[in-house]
Every structure is written in structure tokens, then in C-alpha cells.
Write a structure and sequence with these properties.
CATH class of the largest domain: Mainly Alpha
Shape: elongated
Number of helices: 25
CATH architecture of the largest domain: Up-down Bundle
Number of domains: 3
Strand content: 5-15%
Largest sheet: 11 strands, mixed
CATH topology of the largest domain: Na+/H+ antiporter like fold
């Protein structure tokens, strides 16, 4: 009897413990970290996206599963941050230039993926007994979608493809329209759909969008110029921008997720894609905050309640079927209209079918004001579960087959110029931009950064202080490379001269390019006997990029390639074109070509050069220095082709043009490219 009694108490205690969610912060956080680590690995083993594992793990440990975790205010807070981060990173991946090239396609797809679900959803919900307003509201949930599978597209390397930019632009359009429908339906249900509502909403939305897309880049540029040396301040500024703009969206009565997306679009032009700051944002978002959101979505799902009421199954089945069909039809129709193949169509469908963020927001608001009942909430959760599993799976399956169709036709990897990037370092405060340029080139080709410091061999032994300084410089360069997740191989060298040391290391390490810093002028002695850079170019068998950056490289807004008619006939001209295109792509800057034609020479021919669509090509006549100087703007990166015609002459290789331009515009960044 006593044994049974104690066994009974033990079982009761165990049941009590199991039915009570964990509240201690340490084991709660430990369990969530365990899910983030284990769930994606397990599901990737069975060839399902890790995102699915996180959602199902949320179902399992949530209040409607084993009850190990409660969806309390902490989970809601972190999940909301993760949702905003997800939309923010979607904005960061959105190139305004790409969207301009695909603006017509984005508008067509956005309107189609809004209108078709609205029509089908309204008809379907009214056919099973819903009123007009509830049916329209549920249909708006079908119209909106969450870019749940965006991390998969990023991992597959198809973010700059045409189908992605079209889908991102369409997402912005359909989500804004769907959330506007929500606001209108709620006001109509409450009887407050008045003229004053429209008079406030429309102007406020226009002003808010303008202030975000126009004001944020300018404030960010000022901040980065003033405090760009502090990496922690840069990251904190980005986070503050995200939440300020998201809060501003609430003030104008639209969802914060729209504000988060616009914040990303606005600030992306200030952050190069391969920069350390972008890497930190993506790492923290994808590793911590976005998984919190996915787990919190899973914790909303209650599979058991779907079978308690037969009508719940009907509502759930209709909502799931309509959500899938209503998102596939616009993707298929738009894809056929744009001439896309089946892989592109399925990626577009996979990205747009997921229902989570806007859907949850809309249905929660509607349920709170008694516009829809619990059956609708249950059906919505079932729809979220099915679409959140289907979306990453479809995107992963067909995204692997998708070849990137980025408007930036070729990368530096095609020419392997970024395979092994050699950059001499002497002063970390002045070489920072050179290292950033080298990292961009290396990462664009998945290559290796080779920071080099040369100590001069003299009659006396190398001092310990000099060796210590060399180690410090190389360690700093290595740290910067690791922060950007770039492969790095630091090199310390002792040689009889700087130029010989650089040239020898370039041969020994099989460098694909050398990046050198330039002060913007030459002394009398350098003009007479040649500078170190002159001798490096003379000795080098690989391209040499002579660079000058008065301002941080990430402030570049336009890459201007200036050339003469004679240079278009040189073999190195196409390499200059590819370099300009790649730099513009990675720095998220516009690209412009400037051809300066001598009055005695006929206009050049660019018919054999492949360029991104709508690349401005301007032809002017007159003096090269005068014409280039006249057209330069603030935050330009001027790219010149140094050629090889002076390599046998005892004189500075630059000639007079680059130095004259640098003298006229001391604030302009310049790269003079020498190709062997």
C-alpha cells in the first residue's frame, strides 16, 4: 500500500511537472538554443529545409504540444524582433537598381498575387457561410505573404536573380495592399470608415515612405562618415534605424513589417554586400532572431483542435486549398508572361506561398474585435503550418536548379581576379579602405586575401620593434578579414626593397591581383626615377589596382569608368569593363561609362561590350582631364585604365591625367587599373 501510495505521488508530481511550462530563464534559453542547433541539422539530413525543423520544433515544445515552453511575453518579444529582422534583411537584399530594371514585372506580379487571392478567397469563404466583411478580411490574409524562405534563397546564391527581385517587389506591393484592406475592413466593421480616415492614411503613407527612402540614406551617410571608424556604433545605428522606421509605420497605421522592409531598402545602399557590417547583420539575424520567430510561429499551432469540430476541418481545408491555388496561379501566369521557365515559376510560388507574419497580424486583429471566430483562427493556423512547410521545401527543391539571372551579368570570379588578392599593408588607419576593397574582390570570387608587410633588409639586424609592428599590422588585417568571413593568409616578408618584396611574393603565392595605395601625387624624384608603384607595375605579371580612397569605400554611389577612344581598342579594355561592373554590383552603386573622344578621332565603338541593362554611356569631345573633372560628383569612384604603354619608359607610369584629376578633386576615390 505504501509503495503504491508513493508511486501515485511520484506519478502525480511528474505529471504536474510535465504540464507546467519551464519558466526559469536559463533552461528556457538553453532549450531554445538546443532547438536552433539540432532541429535544422536533423531536417537537413532528411533533405528538408532547416526552417521546417524550427517550426515543427516550436509545435512540439509549445503550449499545444508537450507544453515545455509557454508563448509568454519574452517569446513574443523575441519572435517579433525576428520577424522584423527577417523583413529588414529582405529589404537589405533588395537592390533599388534591380527593382528599377524589373519594376514593371514587380508591379504586375504584385497586383496579380493580390487580386487573384482576394477574388478566390472572398468567393470561397462566402460559399461556406461567411459574411462579406469576414470573407474579404480572410481573403486579404491569402493575398499577403511572408518571405519565410528568403534565407534559403540567400544560401543558394540567387538573391540578385530576376525572379527574386520581381518577387521582392511584388511582396512589397501585395503586403501593403493587403494591410490596407485590413485597416479598411476593421474600420468598416467598427463603423468608423470615414473621410477623415482616408484623408489621414493616404498622405501619411506617402510622407512616411518618402521620409524613409530619402531621409534614412542621408542620415546614415552622415553617421557613417562621422563615426564609421567605430564598428559597434555602425551596427547599433543599423538596429536603431530598423526599430525607429518600424515604429514610424505603426504611427501611420500600417504594420511594422512594412516599415522594416522599407528600412532595409533605404539603408542597403550604404552597406556593401560583402562588408563586415553586412556579415554581422546577416549572421545575428539568421542565427538568432529569425529562428526565434520561426519557433514562435510553431508554438501558435494547435493540431489537436482541428479534429474537435468537423466544421473546423472544412474551414481549414478550404483555407489551405485556396491559399495554395491562389498563390500558384499568379506565379504561373506572371512567369509565362515574363517568359520564365518552370524552375523560376516554382521559386516565385515557393517564396510567395508562405503565410505567417501579415496573416497572423490580420487574423489576430480581426479575432480581437470579434470579426472572425475561433474556427477561422484554427483554419488560419492550419494554413500557416502547411504553407510554412511547403514554402521552404518548394524554394529549396527548385531553387537548386535555378541559374542566377542577375542583371549584373558577370562577376569577377569569371576572370579569377579575386582568387588571391595581394594587398601590402603599412598603416591600419590608412590601409582600411584598401583592405575593404581587397576583401570585396576576394569574397566575390570566394578567393583568399593576402595581406603583406615588407621589412627592409639593411646592414643592421631587424629590430624587435619593427618585427612587433609587422605582426600587429598583419594581425589587424587578419582580424578585419575574419570579421568579413573572408579567407586570409597573412604574409610577413624581409627583402632588400619594397617593390621587389611585393613582386616576389606575388610570384611565390600566385597572386591574381595586387592592390596598392596611392597618395594622389608624385614627387619630383618619383617623376624622374619612378616610384615604388611604377616599379611594382613594371615587375608584375598580374593586374595591379592603384587605389586612392579619401572617404570610406562604402560611401560610393557611382562607379565612373572613364576612357579614351584609343583605349577601347586595347585588350585590357574588356577587363576594365568587367572590373567596373563587379565593383558597382558589390558596392551597390550605379555604373556609368564616359568615353572622351579627341576632336581629331572618330567616335569609338562599344558594340562588342556586354553591359547591364540601362547602363548610361556618355560620349564627350575635348580634353580628357577637363571633361572627366567636369562630370565627377561627390561619392564617385573613378576607374581609369592605366594601360601598359609606359612600362618601358623611365618615367612615372601614371602620366599626367590621374594626378591632374586627383589635384582638381581631392575628395574623389580613384582606381587606376594596370592589366598585363
Amino acid at each position: 500500500m505504501q509503495l503504491i501510495f508513493w508511486q501515485g505521488i511520484t506519478h502525480a508530481q511528474i505529471a504536474s511537472v510535465l504540464s507546467t511550462p519551464i519558466k526559469d530563464p536559463v533552461p528556457v534559453f538553453l532549450m531554445i538554443l538546443g532547438i536552433m542547433l539540432i532541429a535544422p541539422l536533423l531536417f537537413e539530413k532528411i533533405r528538408l529545409p532547416g526552417i521546417v525543423g524550427l517550426i515543427l520544433a516550436g509545435v512540439l515544445v509549445g503550449p499545444n504540444g508537450l507544453g515545455l515552453l509557454a508563448r509568454d511575453s519574452t517569446i513574443v518579444l523575441l519572435g517579433t524582433v525576428g520577424l522584423l529582422f527577417l523583413m529588414f534583411m529582405a529589404g537589405l537584399e533588395t537592390s533599388l537598381d534591380d527593382m528599377k530594371y524589373n519594376a514593371d514585372k514587380a508591379v504586375i506580379f504584385g497586383l496579380a498575387t493580390f487580386a487573384v487571392p482576394m477574388v478566390l478567397g472572398t468567393v470561397a469563404m462566402m460559399s461556406i457561410g461567411y459574411g462579406v466583411l469576414p470573407a474579404i478580411l480572410v481573403a486579404s490574409c491569402f493575398a499577403s505573404h511572408t518571405l519565410l524562405a528568403l534565407p534559403i534563397a540567400s544560401k543558394l546564391g540567387i538573391m540578385r536573380s530576376q525572379v527574386l527581385t520581381t518577387t521582392l517587389g511584388g511582396t512589397l506591393i501585395t503586403n501593403i495592399l493587403a494591410l490596407l484592406v485590413l485597416a479598411v475592413v476593421v474600420r468598416a466593421h467598427q463603423g468608423s470608415l470615414t473621410l477623415s480616415f482616408w484623408l489621414f492614411l493616404i498622405p501619411a503613407l506617402i510622407v512616411y515612405t518618402f521620409l524613409t527612402l530619402w531621409g534614412v540614406p542621408r542620415i546614415g551617410q552622415w553617421f557613417f562618415q562621422r563615426f564609421g571608424h567605430d564598428e559597434g556604433a555602425e551596427f547599433t545605428f543599423v538596429l536603431a534605424t530598423l526599430f525607429v522606421v518600424s515604429f514610424g509605420a505603426e504611427l501611420v497605421q500600417i504594420e511594422p513589417i512594412i516599415g522594416a522592409f522599407l528600412a532595409g531598402v533605404a539603408i542597403t545602399q550604404l552597406i556593401p554586400q560583402l562588408s563586415p557590417l553586412m556579415n554581422r547583420i546577416q549572421f545575428i539575424g539568421n542565427t538568432l532572431f529569425v529562428p526565434f520567430f520561426l519557433i514562435s510561429v510553431g508554438m501558435l499551432v494547435n493540431p489537436g483542435i482541428l479534429i474537435k469540430d468537423p466544421r473546423s476541418l472544412l474551414v481549414s481545408g478550404v483555407m489551405v486549398a485556396v491559399a495554395i491555388v491562389a498563390k500558384y496561379l499568379p506565379a504561373w501566369g506572371a512567369g509565362k508572361l515574363f517568359g520564365l521557365d518552370f524552375n523560376n515559376i516554382m521559386v516565385m510560388f515557393g517564396l510567395s506561398v508562405a503565410q505567417a507574419a501579415s496573416t497572423l497580424a490580420a487574423i489576430t486583429v480581426a479575432y480581437n474585435i470579434k470579426l472572425v471566430d475561433e474556427l477561422t483562427v484554427n483554419g488560419t493556423i492550419a494554413m500557416i503550418l502547411v504553407t510554412c512547410i511547403a514554402s521552404p521545401w518548394v524554394t529549396n527543391q527548385w531553387g537548386r536548379k535555378l541559374k542566377s539571372e542577375s542583371v549584373n551579368v558577370q562577376k569577377l570570379a569569371d576572370d579569377h581576379i579575386g582568387d588571391r588578392v595581394l594587398v601590402p599593408v603599412a598603416n591600419p588607419s590608412t590601409e582600411d579602405n584598401l583592405l575593404k576593397l581587397a576583401i570585396i574582390l576576394a569574397k566575390s570570387a570566394n578567393g583568399t586575401l593576402l595581406p603583406l608587410h615588407v621589412l627592409l633588409e639593411e646592414n643592421t639586424p631587424i629590430s624587435p620593434e619593427a618585427k612587433t609592428r609587422q605582426n600587429q599590422l598583419l594581425s589587424t588585417a587578419e582580424m578585419i578579414a575574419h570579421a568579413a568571413v573572408a579567407n586570409v593568409d597573412p604574409i610577413g616578408r624581409i627583402d632588400e626593397s619594397i617593390d621587389k618584396g611585393i613582386a616576389r611574393v606575388a610570384e611565390e603565392k600566385q597572386a591574381s591581383v595586387i592592390i596598392c595605395g596611392w597618395k594622389g601625387y608624385s614627387t619630383y624624384q618619383e617623376n624622374l626615377f619612378g616610384s615604388v608603384i611604377d616599379r611594382i607595375v613594371q615587375r608584375s605579371s598580374v593586374p595591379v589596382l592603384v587605389s586612392r580612397f579619401p572617404l570610406p569605400i562604402e560611401h560610393t554611389k557611382r562607379v565612373l569608368l572613364a576612357f579614351t577612344t584609343e583605349q577601347t581598342r586595347e585588350n585590357s579594355f574588356n577587363q576594365s569593363i568587367e572590373l567596373a561592373k563587379s565593383l558597382a554590383a558589390e558596392l551597390k552603386a550605379s555604373l556609368q561609362l564616359l568615353q572622351v573622344v579627341s576632336a581629331k578621332v572618330k567616335t569609338g565603338d562599344l558594340r562588342n561590350v556586354e553591359l547591364p541593362p540601362d547602363t548610361p554611356i556618355q560620349q564627350v569631345r575635348g580634353n580628357f582631364v577637363r571633361q572627366v573633372s567636369r562630370l565627377l560628383k561627390t561619392n564617385d569612384l573613378l576607374l581609369l585604365n592605366g594601360g601598359v604603354e609606359h612600362k618601358t619608359q623611365l618615367m612615372a607610369l601614371f602620366g599626367k591625367a590621374p594626378e591632374a584629376i586627383a589635384h582638381n578633386h581631392p575628395e574623389i576615390a580613384m582606381i587606376i587599373a594596370y592589366f598585363p
